[in-house]
Amino acid sequence: MDRKLLVQENLRLSDENAKLKLKLDYLEKQAQAHEQQLSSFLKLQHDHYSVLSSTTWRMTASARQTIILLKKIRQRLRAIRHSGALFLSHVERAGLYPTLTKSYQALTSRGLSLLWNHAPPPTVRRNFSLPAPNISANDLFPGEILLISEVSIPQCLKYRVVQKQRMIESLGYNCRYLDWRDHHACLSALQTCSVVIFYRVPAFPDVLLLIEEARRLKVISYWEVDDLIFDPEKYRKNSNLNALSADTIRSLMDGVELYRQAMLACDRAIASTSGLAAAMRDAGVNDVTVIENALDSETLSAADSINAMQARQHDGDTLRIVYGSGTKTHDADFLEAAAAIYSVMERRPNVILRIIGDLTLPTYFDSLAERVERLPFSDYTGYLESLAQCDISIAPLENSTFNDAKSNIKFLEASSVLLPSVCSPRSAFRQAIVHGENGFLANDRQSWEHYLQELIDNAALRREVSQNAHQTILDSYSPEKIAASQVCQVLPRKPTTPTKRVLSANIFFAPRSFGGATVVAEQMSRLIASNSDLEQFVFTSLPPEAVAPYNLARYEAHGVTVLGMGLPDALAASSDFENKATVPVFDAVLKSVAPDLVHLHSIQGLGALLADSCRRAGIPFLVTLHDAWWICGRQFMINNRGQYCGQTTIKTEVCAKCVDNPSLNSYRQQMLASTLKNATALLVPSRFTKNLYVANGFEAEKIHINKNGVLAPAQHYRKHPSKTIRFGYVGGNTPIKGIHLISQAFSAIDRTDYELVVVDNLLNLGSHSFDEHSIKIPGQVKIIPGYNQNSIDEFFSNIDVLLFPTQWKETFGLTIREALVRDVWVISTDAGGTVEDIVDGTNGTIIPLTADERYLKDAIISILNNQERFLNHINPFKNDITLFGAQALELQSFYEQIIDESADD
């Protein structure tokens, strides 16, 4: 055989052997990478099975059961003690009546296990048990896009994550990316986006939970990848797998299956090439969008600077062929062109091969070692500079289904620095390259040799091809082009006329309807949402058992969208009013919701820093002063001895004797006062509340009365007839509500022609706060369970006079209004906002705010002496009582005025 032919045959055989070896190495490396991801899980699974199947485990079953039982008993005892502490804490914060009401509702729905099991009911225990909202995420957050991504591969992070984020933002959307391993952050971010793209993530349990949560929230989910790593059938048909061990093959297939499961779990998919999109469709994805890699502005700017400096460095007529490898996994690909390159270099002594990154050359290149340059893989700008110093770029890819799905990024990068390229005719290269005009496609050794030789020998051809290639990437592969033609296809359409939005904040909201301020916040949000064009959102807290602390969960209640933030049960004293951990969460909510106005209700625990967030975002905010929380460290102006403190203008030196931390309280007062002074408007439920805050330095012109509404009686409400006067009391067995005055007053009246109906909310909890010995009076005493919004008419239809001898000045007095609107006479102490709807002598009796029972006794005697009048009493001013609907209309007008004025500024 001719010596030349023998050398060529040896080269060919050497190439084939090298290819087979490198294929094996590549597949082994892939398997190892997948095996590392799965190893921890598989080991835990194996260890778990080994333990459960062991003889020791079976023999110790009885002992373990005993230990478990003892642990459960101990845990339940601790939990019951904790329940008592929580109950007292809620009483101090929200009051006895709402605490008892809420406790009753919880016990009737969940039973006595509530005492040792503090987890909420199944509907709120975990995000994934929350019911699916009725409103799609696209209607709520059309401008919010989330990328949940694999971020550990630098090149993928640049081209498929950061680049996509910037392209999405260039189209006017908000976009952020998160590492898929940060489960809680991903889960929280899902609550306020319309589209989520899962890039290159496997179907580990946490990922599947995220995908399921996206489905619950009606968030459109995409699974994206830029490699064919999801098709087990094609992997199985690969004959090279025969050289691998059974364990390695199994691990490799497990990894492929995880990617496939994640892809098929999502609604749609995104591919980087048309070849990859076809493989996705073959795998069962119906809706696939192709979004190609682009050259972002940073790359193009760096390339332009490099081109302007004429970075090519030539030693005489020396020419450089450059190959950017990156990793050794490209060794098999390089073999597609290796023999041709060797032959060209052998014939052209002026040609140098530059390798950037790791690459194992065939041994026959040893004879040309002095003409092989090796550069380490550097930062991106350095990589482009190294490319620009060369003359011809190559991008060989082995002919396989996997490579047919790869992108054309090597062509794009070379073209950016004016290098002509010779590439394998894989799908993405065929799509970008017009052969002979802006590049060359080489399919075998002869074509590789021919086109390399042609470019080496023809400088004019190199310039023409590189210029055409550069224009191609500017015309078709700029971020603007890709964004406008491809990225836009996966983005939701924004409304042309967005609605005005109001975001309310309250510490509790349904299903945790806890406290009077919560009732008001719920009813206002519900009514305004159903009767106006203002779109209502609510920011509230949820227990940490339902949502991880300072993470979000979205649900719907009363027809409005609620964003609940996990809030720890135990907070530092300062966090009650200045909770810094809430700020980033609320900032994100403001950005996603983009409200025109924020309404702060009772925000203890959430903290007043919410107002600072509004101010930084340029959003007007108003505050409803439901109680004295903004000026009193104990919220209700009841001191540490359980008595009304009696202050009008709050003095910190007086408060110092009452609060636990006087210096903290002084700071608290200053901080909260500053917050209120920055508010657009302040709302109060009564004249008394307005006067109280004016007395403490707040502008009267800024404070507006928005009386709390009450539930209207049913259309056919009527009082049940009675022969004797029925007095009612609902304040609980506590001196601050005046129960002792009632006992003393009735005991001093020598009459029995009446009935005293006492509400004991603890009866609903299987306990009691009153018994037959609690109230010893001459007349009949009847103790009944508490009422709710469904049974309120029944309660008031069976009493004629409501006794309200409270011993502190309250800001409103909800029970009084509920009685007045139902034709029930009211006897009340002159206790601030409670008496503002009482016309003394016409629909009620106002007595002095004092611990002297004589005034209450005289009022009761007056009624007993004129029973006929009060048995048939009709309140002539009941139409003046504010109902929820009227309060909502008035509040809506405040909203619209503030929004309009803000828009004019």
From TrEMBL:
The keyword Transferase applies. It holds the Pfam family Glycos_transf_1. Residues 10-37 form a coiled coil. GO terms for biological process: carbohydrate derivative metabolic process. Residues 515-709 form the Glycosyltransferase subfamily 4-like N-terminal domain. One of its GO terms (molecular function) is glycosyltransferase activity. InterPro entries: Glyco_trans_1, Glyco_trans_4-like_N. This is Glycosyltransferase involved in cell wall bisynthesis. It comes from Pseudomonas delhiensis.
